[in-house]
Amino acid sequence: MNFLSRSVLVNLALVAVLRAEVAPPVTAAPAAEKTVVLPALEVTASRASLTSPSLEAARADLALTPGGAEVVAADRYLQGRASTVADTFALSPGVIAQSRFGSDEARLSIRGSGLQRTFHGRGIRVLQDGVPINLADGGFDMQSLEPTATAYVNVWRGSNALAYGSSTLGGAIDYVSRTGRTAPGGFARLEVGSYDYLRATVADGVVHGNADGYASFTQSQQQGFRDHADQNNQRLFTNVGWRLDENVETRLYLTAVKTDSELPGSLTKAELEANPEQQDPTKLSANQKRDYELVRAASKTTITAADTTVDFIAAWTYKDLDHPLSFAVIDQLSNDALAGTTLTHTGDLAGRDNRLRAGLLLNVGVTEATNLRNLNGRRGIVTSDADQTATNVEAFAEDQLALGGGFTGIAGVTAAHNRRENDQLDGDSISYDRSYESLAPKVGLRWDDKPKTMQVYGNVSGSYEPPSFSEGGTTTVANKAQQALTYELGTRGTQGFIRWDASVYYAQVEDELLAISLPGPVSGTFNADRTTHQGVELGFEADVLGQTWSEKTENRLVARGAWTYGRFNFDNDRTFGDNTLAGLPEHLFRGEFVWQNAAGYYAGPTFEWVPVKAFVDHANTLSADPYALLGFKFGRRVERGLSWFVELKNLTDETYAATTGVIENAAGADARQFLPGDGRSVFAGVEYRF
Fold first, then answer.
1. 258-287: average pLDDT
2. What is the DSSP code string of 265-327?
3. Average pLDDT in the 655-666 region?
4. Which CATH superfamily does the domain covering 55-689 fall into?
5. Mean pLDDT, rounded, of the chain
């Protein structure tokens, strides 16, 4: 029995024990006992959790951010297939999430962060319940996220994540888990669909006195739209919490993931148009895959006293990666540990409302990194062997002071010291020991109207990102950390039948980390001198029947949409001038037009539209074509009982590139850098909560 199987049994058994303790003992009633009717007694139990805030509390906290931010409730993406990050963030402005081939692995970018990455993301801090899941060098895996075990997702775009410990250009995303207190009862969900897609989740949450527990297990698999694209994943997410008293709560988390993913590779544009279902024909014998096992143990303790809250976090992550590619087999064994604390104090300063949030995070990761020859899908001799150590010390502080007239002033700073050590034991790569330091400031202003239904905000914020080992150890070595200064204006709110979230930003970036594919089976990363990232992020929701969002109605006809505009350029570069940075489309529109019923029924069309080409190379000589996708979904979603959905995707069977690789200069020739999107498909699901 493997580790994952044992973990499933142990944690489900723990929840079962808690559930058994909740159930009252069954006893036989004494014969001829007189029945006494007592007055009805209503018993209510508090479901509040100190370590896992409610959705309403998360939205209230987000409203304090003087910049682009959003809370994504799970009910939004659970109305259809809930598989990839593209499903989760389909209606999130500013978040570009494009699946590589209908799988978990994707390009995930905010404001142009890590824009060249279509796998193993970077440039965004990803958290689970406020605890980072990024490895110490900054990388993260989409396969380690499970949307069905999540209550909601917090998104802070760009430098707006400073108050949560992130200083990266892309910001932060926090997956907040369901707990026994926030989601008591059983849960079962089954999704099936095209390309032999299956996703099944069983979960249970219980509360017993001061303790609660939650366990969720998901099996997902699919053959995939393309050849050699099989996916098979198992994910266990569990947590157990204890309320030591009214002001202290501790929660322990255990995550176990086993994921096997075949990689079909990229196609030329001609190959994509001829047969988008094929795998890279030049790598048929390489058996390209990305498989890993991950175990993560974490803890969070929250202590409240008067107007002060202190959080203590800790985590350990073990990851075993087996990654055959055409030119090598990457074999990595990682152990990462972190510890941190955050203090939030709300009170008065000089007679005005004031909120101070400050924290410290320590993070160390050690990786045994080995490369071997790929001999027709089998491991050959070792070509490179290294011990890699990443160390991070990060501190941050942000203060918000009420200025009067609805205005709040914000000032903050992050300070970081990062070290990357590569001890090369074998192979041609060099050993190195590099250190990076940074101070990233932030000043902002927020105005709230008196009914608190509308906000206007602005900020100027610094960001900073040292290279990961993937960047620092490649053929073209990036030695410098990426830094940026971002200017932002925006507004969000609700007025009558309209809700909106709109931001405009302009970022001046120095030493941007840009990965490129070089001729042959090699890649590299260089520090661009100066680049600019600017854009518009607009999300909206309107009841076209004119009914306000505050009134209860039997039916609504709702238009929802997200427009992400990003213009990313070199700035008078010696080689590329003012060319567009390759990797992302300039415009991305996603939306839906849905009828909603008070009984939980919904139906309507969905769409995705990229109206402009997306460059593949920095020389701007090769691009992916524009595309438009049309879908439709209908179903019923209820808080308890049976929910169901049917979702149709790409109804017109459009042939298109969902995303592309990034190269330096294609010289106008076709290149094998295109990743086809899925064809026409249908998915259906049922869910039961009890």
1. 95
2. --B-HHHHHH-TT---GGGTTS--B-EEEEEEEEEEEEEEETTEEEEEEEEEEEEEEEEE-SS
3. 93
4. TonB-dependent receptor, beta-barrel domain (2.40.170.20)
5. 90
